[in-house]
Specification:
The complex is a heterodimer. Chain A is of the alpha/beta class. Chain A contains 14 helices and nine strands. The N and C termini of chain A lie far apart (57 Å). Chain B is an alpha/beta fold. Chain B folds into two domains: 44 residues, no CATH class; 224 residues, Alpha-Beta Complex (2-enoyl-CoA Hydratase, Chain A, domain 1), CATH 3.90.226.10. Chain B contains nine helices and ten strands. The relative contact order of chain B is 0.12. Classes of the chains: A alpha/beta, B alpha/beta. The structure holds zinc ion.
């Protein structure tokens, strides 16, 4: 058993091994702290083992495991990345029509010297926050607020960065009364025409139309353990398999992981996450994301606006697989 | 002419149950009145080809790209493979795909037309529907003709095409935006049901939005909402009348008047350059 290669073990077995190692490391560290004994060499060995197992776990992740990572309660949120990356953030509230949807965060900020508008889904940290943010599921006023601020950015020639992280747009009575479909459609429509560079990054959940509502742009990247899908794996399983338990199969079938989306030609780049995913080192993830953002900002700045809009049109115009016999 | 789902057919096929008023109505009477319930004016779902006959001048329709066919880019297999599902729905509906597009005239006005049909995989938008809607929009722009799109889509997105399906929302919206910016007139007709990705893209982006009476229209399906909020939904929730009341429709038009209303709007709004 001991000699069994890591790659032959299941994720559950590997996770148990990780736990055992963690306990062993803790014990040794405590012993060292108390000055009872020195375990430098052993500790180093155990930490290396731990890293090997972590790598093995991550090489074995199924698409549904990745969906769960994207929804991990500790996963960094748009507001975390804004905190790490953006200086001098000025939050702008309200759609000036109905209300201020907390599930959408908008504001001006600087990334190094670059002035930008940031728009993102907001999930909230504490339980209270999460409820106030409706778990990142915007209402129509969220999309209308985002669009209003994006028009502001267009007027004053600021590039726009959108951080996508939503299970989907809010499905409820009020949202329908206030035109959820219309709000999303209008946002997509206007984003296609906005005369300023737009960068979209999926940082967690890319939930269908609710994600696309702030998901049109000139550069499209996704974090390594985020997903983007036309429907949640659970919803898809319930409809097509008539069985919600088939969500893992649906997740695989939908090809919703970052790697899948790169292979399908939908995203431009996958932004790597630290070993163990973004929540293991939010600062490092933010640093990586920042370097990608700066690269895109510099690239997009050199493109004349008319060309930018034409390229953006063609980007979506050419997506689709069909045959003409 | 009426498209009845099997389970609602009465045994002898002479009477049908109306979705609007739940009454049993004489099938022949319904058929003779454009598939509208004589008791409550409920507009039964009809096939897209029949709809085109009602809207367009006789023999004026020229279909474009009729042979466009879906691929299976994800090798999707749920309880059956995607190609099997496509063949099954082709058999059932007599349609090659969920959208038919082409050129026709409405009381003499040449118009680019698109229509999606819930009889084919719920009228969902995959790559073929997205491409056809986009091309007909581009054609309307090229030839400076009005664009009329009649939507009927229960699911919105073609799940079997995954992300390609979602991206058709972007593609069609981008095309509509370009067309409208160039001064084109776009009229959207919403029929029962118009939901999801179709509603959150091209179907919602018209200069004039018209619905048939009592048509179910919205973003999330009523069942999803019901399951999420665990409350009974209001009586006319997501029906055309509800949307009119909340300001999302220009008008509700009875099937028998649809053709004349559309031509009247074209006469008012279409400016040929
Ligand atoms: Zn009736």
């Amino acid at each position: 058993m001991e000699k069994m290669a890591l790659r032959e073990r299941s994720i559950a077995e590997l996770e148990n091994m990780m736990l055992e190692l963690e306990h062993r490391i803790e014990d040794l560290e405590n012993a060292s702290l108390k000055g009872e004994s020195e375990h430098g060499a052993e500790l180093q060995y155990l930490r290396e083992e731990q890293e090997k197992i972590q790598k093995e776990i991550f090489s074995k992740l199924t698409p549904y495991d990745i969906v769960k990572l994207a929804r991990h309660p500790l996963r960094p949120l748009s507001t975390d990345y804004i905190g790490f990356i953006v200086e001098d953030f000025v939050e702008l509230h309200g759609d000036k029509r109905f209300g201020d949807d907390k599930a959408m965060v908008c504001g001006l900020g600087k990334i190094d010297q670059e002035k930008v508008l940031i728009v993102g889904h907001r999930k909230g940290k504490s339980t209270k926050d999460r409820i106030a943010c409706n778990f990142g599921m915007p209402n129509p006023e969220g999309y209308r607020k985002a669009l209003l601020k994006m028009k502001l950015a267009e007027k004053f020639h600021l590039p726009i960065i959108t951080l996508i992280d939503t299970p989907g747009a809010n499905p409820d009575i009020g949202a329908e009364e206030r035109g959820q479909a219309h709000a999303i459609a209008e946002s997509i429509y206007e984003m296609c025409q906005l005369r300023t560079p737009i960068i979209n990054i999926v940082i967690g959940e890319g939930g269908s139309g609710g994600a696309l509502g702030i998901g049109i742009g000139d550069k499209f990247a996704i974090l390594e353990y985020a997903y983007y899908s036309v429907i949640s794996p659970e919803g898809c399983a319930a409809i097509l398999w008539k069985n919600g338990e088939k969500a893992p199969v649906a997740a695989k079938s939908l090809q919703l992981t970052a790697k899948d989306l790169l292979n399908l030609g939908i995203v431009d780049e996958v932004i790597p996450e630290p070993l163990g995913a973004a929540h293991k080192d939010p600062g490092k993830t933010a640093e990586t994301m920042k370097s990608y953002l700066l690269k895109y900002l510099h690239q997009l700045k050199t493109i004349p606006t008319d060309t930018l809009i034409e390229n953006r049109y063609n980007r979506y115009r050419n997506i689709g697989k069909y045959l003409e016999i | 002419m009426v498209f009845f789902r099997k389970k609602k057919d009465m045994p002898n096929g002479l009477w049908i149950s109306c979705d609007g008023c739940k009454n049993l109505v004489y099938k022949k009477t319904v058929e003779e009145s454009l598939s509208v319930c004589p008791e409550c004016d409920y507009h039964f779902r009809i096939f897209s080809r029949d709809r085109l006959k009602l809207l367009l001048d006789e023999d004026s329709f020229e279909e474009y790209w009729p042979d466009m066919t879906p691929c299976n880019p994800l090798n999707f297999f749920d309880r059956m493979s995607y190609p099997e599902r496509v063949s099954a729905d082709r058999q059932k509906s007599g349609l090659k795909e969920a959208a038919i597009v082409g050129k026709g005239s409405i009381n003499g006005y040449e118009t680019m037309i698109g229509i999606t049909d819930p009889a084919f995989i719920m009228g969902s938008m995959g790559s073929v529907v997205g491409e056809k809607i986009t091309r007909i929009t581009e054609k309307a722009m090229e030839q400076q003709l009005p664009l009329v799109i009649i939507s009927g889509s229960g699911g919105g997105a073609r799940m079997q095409e995954g992300i390609f399906s979602l991206m058709q929302m972007a593609k069609t919206s981008a095309a509509i935006a370009k067309f409208q910016k160039a001064g084109g007139l776009y009229i959207s007709i919403l029929t029962d049901p118009s939901l999801g990705g179709v509603m959150a893209s091209f179907a919602s982006l018209a200069d004039i939005t018209i619905a048939e009476p009592k048509a179910l229209i919205g973003f999330a399906g009523p069942r999803v909402i019901q399951e999420t909020i665990k409350r009974t939904l209001p009586g006319n929730f997501q029906r055309a009348e509800f949307l009119l009341e909340h300001g999302f429709l220009d008008m509700i038009v009875h099937r028998k008047n649809m053709k004349n209303e559309i031509s009247r709007l074209i006469e008012y709004l279409h400016v040929s350059q």
